[in-house]
């Protein structure tokens, strides 16, 4: 079984701004781009994404696009979702449906998302994003902004927000 470091090396993964490691695996260059309210986007992009025991958190962030997450290898990953109306939802992406884990998780655009490696060395997934991912469409969560918007989820907000950069 490959280790987290072996996956990083084998797949050429790099650190991701939200935490963990990633590499883009596809963008629909063969199709016309789609118009969105914020510009032209690929119809679809995809990445490999890896959380590890030393980088176990995908910090709070919001994407405009819809994202499908597919579990491929390793340990389960817990997802925390906060919908625009403040409704909270959790799901565990993993290989054990008999324990309530799901192999595929759909997260609609506009839903705040954080994730963490539930246990173990690593969890390897892929994501398919439509319209295609663009950094301009992603907002990283800030503790003060999220607490003002979702005070009822204060513990989760604090636990999974990326630490502020020193000024």
TrEMBL record:
This is Cupin domain-containing protein. It comes from the Bacteria. Residues 5-140 form the DUF985 domain. PANTHER family: DUF985 DOMAIN-CONTAINING PROTEIN, RMLC-LIKE JELLY ROLL FOLD PROTEIN. It comes from Kitasatospora paranensis. Coiled coil: none annotated.
């Amino acid at each position: 079984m490959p280790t987290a470091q072996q996956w990083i090396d084998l797949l050429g993964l790099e650190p991701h701004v939200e935490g963990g490691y990633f590499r883009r695996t596809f963008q629909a260059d063969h199709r016309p781009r789609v118009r969105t309210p914020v510009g032209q986007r690929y119809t679809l992009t995809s990445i490999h994404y890896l959380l590890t025991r030393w980088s176990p958190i995908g910090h709070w962030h919001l994407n405009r696009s819809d994202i499908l997450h597919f579990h491929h290898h390793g340990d389960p990953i817990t997802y925390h979702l906060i919908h625009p109306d403040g409704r909270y939802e959790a799901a565990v992406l993993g290989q054990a449906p008999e324990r309530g884990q799901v192999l595929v998780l759909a997260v609609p655009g506009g839903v705040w998302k954080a994730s963490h490696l539930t246990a173990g060395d690593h969890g390897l997934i892929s994501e398919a994003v439509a319209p295609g991912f663009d950094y301009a469409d992603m907002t990283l969560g800030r503790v003060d902004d999220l607490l003002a918007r979702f005070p009822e989820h204060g513990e989760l907000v604090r636990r999974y927000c990326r630490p502020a950069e020193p000024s």
